[in-house]
């Protein structure tokens, strides 16, 4: 018997994790395989390769991740630089050590887009807080970082490309 997405229990749903890799931090975003909506998850402060991989493995298990999308930082002209090569090595380690499907996607301008979005959203929250000064700021918005939002942008664009390629079949 086939069930609709709303009938699927949370434990049966699988997630897609997006990674915005950086030398100091790793931005993470998640999308449920059914709703396919990208949301910033968190930012991991880098410690070392082994500890970073352990924490990533834990997140993959906790969120039942079936696929990881890693942003590939190409130059604006589309060529690969030193950082792109470093990210490719990271993606290979993830694929080997965590054992889930890993895809690399172009992430050009995602951090810029994330910064603009955060400026807009945080400016709105600051304005709302001034109007209702007794209200405390919401924790979810306070925890959003450019890295996690950039990962959400990467994931949103990946999901949109998948949707349009499925519609063109």
Describe the protein in words.
This protein has about 170 residues and is α/β, with parallel strands linked by helices. Helix content is about 45%, strand content about 20%. It contains five helices and five strands. It has helices at about 50-60, 80-100, 110-130, 140-145, 145-165, and strands at about 15-20, 25-30, 40-45, 65-70, 100-105. The two termini are about 25 Å apart.
List keywords for this structure.
169 residues, alpha/beta, 5 helices, 47% helix, 22% strand, disordered N terminus
Distance between the first and last residues' Cα: 27 Å
Main β sheet profile: 5 strands, mixed
Residues in helix, %: 40-55%
Q: What low-confidence regions span 5 or more consecutive residues with pLDDT below 50?
A: 1-11, 125-130, 134-143
Question: SSE string, helix = H, strand = E?
Answer: EEEHEHEHHH
Order of adjacent strands in the largest pleated sheet: 3-2-1-4-5
Number of strands: 5
Radius of gyration computed on alpha carbons: 17 Å
- Helix segment count? 5
Beta-strand proportion:
15-25%
Broad shape: globular
Q: Could you say which structural class the secondary elements and strand pairing correspond to?
A: alpha/beta
Mean of residue pLDDT? Answer: 80
Strand and helix map with partners:
Elements: E1 15-21, E2 25-32, E3 38-45, H1 49-62, E4 65-72, H2 82-98, E5 101-106, H3 110-131, H4 139-143, H5 146-167
Helix pairs in contact: 1-2, 3-5
Concise synopsis of the structure shown:
This protein is α/β, with parallel strands linked by helices and 169 residues long. It has helices spanning 49-62, 82-98, 110-131, 139-143, 146-167, and strands at residues 15-21, 25-32, 38-45, 65-72, 101-106.
């Amino acid at each position: 018997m086939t069930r609709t997405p709303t009938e699927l229990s949370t434990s049966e749903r699988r997630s897609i994790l997006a990674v915005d890799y950086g030398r100091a931090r790793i931005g993470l975003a998640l999308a449920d395989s059914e709703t396919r909506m990208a949301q910033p998850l968190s930012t991991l402060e880098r410690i070392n390769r082994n500890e970073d991989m352990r924490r990533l493995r834990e997140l993959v298990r906790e969120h039942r991740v079936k696929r990881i999308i890693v942003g590939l930082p190409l130059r604006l002209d589309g060529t690969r630089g030193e950082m792109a090569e470093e990210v490719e090595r990271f993606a290979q380690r993830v694929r080997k050590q965590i054992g889930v499907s890993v895809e690399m996607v172009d992430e050009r301008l995602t951090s810029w887009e994330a910064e603009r979005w955060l400026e807009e959203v945080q400016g709105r929250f600051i304005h709302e807080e001034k109007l209702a000064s007794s209200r405390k700021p919401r924790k979810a918005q306070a925890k959003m970082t450019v890295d996690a939002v950039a990962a959400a942008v990467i994931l949103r664009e990946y999901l949109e490309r998948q949707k349009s390629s499925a519609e063109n079949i």
